[in-house]
């Protein structure tokens, strides 16, 4: 690893005019960059070849990354990069896991071809580990390498605290048919999404496991209609809750998706436990990259808020959106919330426990307490099917008028709503636009 060295001199990119510091990287080296929290960072690849989390950079093209972004510019053969940002927030490292990741990709690709010849579903790979070890980054790298090889895999996002497929508080899956944008990530195109309503599975582990099962079943149905995706397989990004009930949920997900390989990052005990409890599954253990930095609670909260904001308003300076404020009479919506069973054990049938009772929903009336809360639009018309039905989109309650019996909603699309059944969530979003 090297810090600031003599090659990091002030320069101006000839092709783009970007002023910054020049970094010269040798082969199998990466430049790790931490953008300041109050301003972003820009970079230009001036010479050679390089990539950001598996996405190739275009030579002499200016890339802008948002405030607080953390990224690594990796080169296989050497390159020169101009960075506009605090040079003391940038450092080079020749200790990277990229060769291991590429070797892993080759093994999975070979298994994919073997299964395709046998007319079997493509391999499902689950990435596991505690929070802030680089699970989502590894998924992004492997997905990008898979796309660059001509295959369109499925990304399955089970991390409700992050929201890589939809807003935080949900799980989902989508086909990845284009490499991720270096700064924006993957575009969300027609994903399958299920509403959970919390940032951690521990708030309702029974509901979480039920939704994971439902998502796995939905994906199997989609495989039947899209053979190309069936043979491509899927990459599963799990959440960082790996203790006690969280570990049980992790095993549940692995079994529901019939995983071929589990990659454990930076947690030896978890690696050993999964080897014991999932016989027949390939389990690998990788250390986390030296560039992975633990996030504070404030940073996590900010990331979630920005993810929700971008759902309605798009990405700042990249893909702006214009959401709609719609006012609906109370009778045009039916709002439900998830409820846990409160039946005393003495009233349950013989041999049945409260653990075996599935969560259900109960209808609630619009109230002032709903303001700023997120609602999901269920694809179900029957309230009994809400929890097992996918979400069509999300709304934010901005006002409730009890006098007029009207609710005002921030919506990505104009009225009318595609369905009337809405599911209440504990997730809030303060619309400051």
From TrEMBL:
GO cellular component term of the entry, any: mRNA cleavage factor complex
Any one GO molecular-function label of the UniProt entry: ATP binding
Localization: Nucleus
Domain Clp1 C-terminal: 321-431
InterPro entries xref list: Clp1, Clp1/Grc3, Clp1_C, Clp1_C_sf, Clp1_N, Clp1_N_sf, CLP1_P, P-loop_NTPase
Domain Clp1 P-loop as annotated: residue spans: 129-314
Keyword Nucleus: yes
Pfam families listed in its UniProt record: Clp1 (PF06807), CLP1_N (PF16573), CLP1_P (PF16575)
Domain Clp1 N-terminal: 25-114
Keywords from the named record: ATP-binding, mRNA processing, Nucleotide-binding, Nucleus
Role summary: Required for endonucleolytic cleavage during polyadenylation-dependent pre-mRNA 3'-end formation.
Family: Belongs to the Clp1 family. Clp1 subfamily.
Protein name, entry field: Protein CLP1 homolog
Species of provenance: Oopsacas minuta
């Amino acid at each position: 690893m090297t810090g600031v060295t003599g090659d990091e001199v002030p320069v101006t990119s000839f092709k783009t005019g970007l002023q910054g510091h020049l970094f010269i990287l040798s082969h199998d080296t990466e430049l790790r960059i931490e953008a300041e929290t109050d301003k972003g960072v820009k970079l230009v690849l001036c010479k050679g070849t390089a990539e950001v989390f598996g996405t190739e950079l275009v030579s002499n093209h200016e890339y802008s990354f948002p405030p607080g972004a953390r990224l690594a510019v990796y080169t296989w053969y050497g390159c020169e990069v101009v960075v506009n940002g605090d040079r003391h927030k940038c450092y080079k490292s020749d200790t990277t896991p990229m060769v291991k990741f590429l070797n892993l990709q080759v093994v999975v690709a070979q298994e994919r071809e073997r299964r395709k010849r046998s007319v079997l579903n493509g391999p499902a790979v689950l990435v596991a580990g505690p929070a802030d070890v680089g699970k989502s980054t590894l998924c992004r790298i492997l997905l990008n390498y898979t796309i660059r090889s001509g295959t369109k895999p499925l990304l399955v996002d089970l991390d409700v605290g992050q929201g890589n497929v939809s807003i935080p508080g949900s799980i989902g899956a989508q086909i990845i048919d284009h490499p991720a944008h270096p700064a924006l990530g993957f575009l969300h195109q027609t994903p399958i999404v299920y509403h959970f309503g919390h940032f951690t599975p521990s708030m309702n582990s029974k509901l979480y496991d039920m939704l994971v099962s439902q998502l796995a079943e939905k994906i199997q149905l989609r495989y039947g209609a899209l053979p190309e995706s069936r043979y491509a397989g899927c990459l599963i990004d799990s959440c960082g809750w790996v203790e006690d009930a969280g570990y049980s949920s992790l095993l549940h997900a692995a079994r529901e998706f019939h995983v071929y390989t589990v990659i454990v990052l930076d947690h030896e005990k978890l690696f050993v436990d999964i080897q014991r409890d999932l016989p027949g599954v390939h389990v690998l253990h990788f250390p986390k990259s030296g560039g992975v930095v633990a996030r504070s609670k404030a940073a996590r909260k900010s990331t979630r808020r920005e993810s929700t904001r971008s759902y309605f308003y798009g990405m700042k300076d990249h893909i702006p959106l214009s959401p709609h404020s719609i006012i609906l009479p109370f009778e045009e919506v039916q709002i439900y919330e998830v409820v846990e069973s409160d039946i005393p054990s003495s009233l349950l049938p013989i041999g049945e426990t409260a653990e075996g009772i599935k969560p259900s929903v109960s209808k609630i009336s619009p109230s002032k307490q709903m303001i700023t809360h997120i609602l999901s639009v269920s694809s179900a018309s029957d309230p009994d099917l809400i929890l097992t039905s996918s979400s069509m989109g999300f709304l934010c309650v901005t006002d409730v008028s009890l006098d007029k019996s009207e609710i005002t909603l921030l919506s990505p699309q104009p009225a009318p709503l595609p369905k009337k059944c809405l599911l209440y969530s504990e997730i809030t979003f303060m619309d400051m636009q």
